[in-house]
């Protein structure tokens, strides 16, 4: 074997090891960012659950005052059940958006019922829901930042080749119109 052949084999080995190291580090980076996005998705879900767990107490208070709002009450109850039964992030997001719309309608009922508006239990629950909603806005924003960081890595060249090789998929953003 000549020095030229040895040089070629050393060069091929260096290229191979460099490529393997790049695939290894890129794969681990994608895994890390996917886990971060999943973790943040769980945080959003925890806050949604906290908010939606307040609904039964709210419904009981509103039922006593707003007999004419039966349709809204049923819609909120149905959507809360659907959200709990949803398995995918997409369906949870879609149902959460619908439920939040119905919940907003329910909270607006107070305008038509002055006694309800003055009820201490209703005020307490309304404040609790408002507090959780503020936390939820922060968590959704942070989730979307994590998803953006992950999705961008999936699209950048040459990371996108590694992502396709290992079948990484983009994550959905949490938007109010899901």
Q: Concise description?
A:
The protein is mainly α and 178 residues long.
Describe this structure in words.
It is a single chain. This protein has helices at 3-52, 55-65, 70-85, 89-108, 114-118, 120-155, 159-165. The chain has 178 residues and is mostly helical. It has a single domain, classed as de novo design (two linked rop proteins) (Up-down Bundle). The longest helix has 50 residues, at 3-52. The radius of gyration is 25 Å and the shape is rod-shaped.
Main sheet record: none
User: What is the number of E strands?
Assistant: 0
State the end-to-end CA separation: 65 Å
What CATH architecture would you give?
A: Up-down Bundle
The geometry reads as rod-shaped
Point out poorly predicted stretches: none
What percent of residues are in strands? Answer: under 5%
Structural class estimated from helices and strands: mainly alpha
Please report the number of helical segments.
7
The averaged pLDDT comes out at 86
**Approximate helicity band:** over 70%
């Amino acid at each position: 074997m000549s020095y030229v052949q040895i040089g070629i084999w050393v060069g091929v080995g260096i290229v191979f090891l460099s490529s393997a190291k790049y695939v290894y580090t890129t794969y681990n980076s994608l895994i890390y960012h996917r886990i971060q996005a999943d973790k943040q998705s769980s945080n959003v879900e925890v806050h949604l659950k906290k908010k939606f767990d307040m609904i039964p107490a709210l419904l009981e208070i509103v039922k006593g005052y707003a007999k004419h709002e039966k349709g809204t009450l049923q819609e909120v109850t149905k959507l809360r059940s659907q959200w709990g039964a949803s398995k995918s992030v997409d369906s949870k997001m879609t149902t959460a958006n619908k439920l939040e719309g119905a919940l907003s309608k329910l909270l607006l009922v107070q305008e038509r019922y002055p006694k309800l508006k003055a009820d201490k239990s209703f005020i307490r629950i309304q404040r609790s829901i408002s507090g959780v909603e503020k936390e939820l806005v922060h968590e959704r924003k942070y989730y979307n930042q994590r998803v953006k960081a992950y999705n961008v890595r999936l699209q950048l060249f040459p990371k996108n080749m590694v992502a396709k090789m290992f079948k990484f998929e983009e994550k959905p953003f949490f938007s109010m119109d899901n």
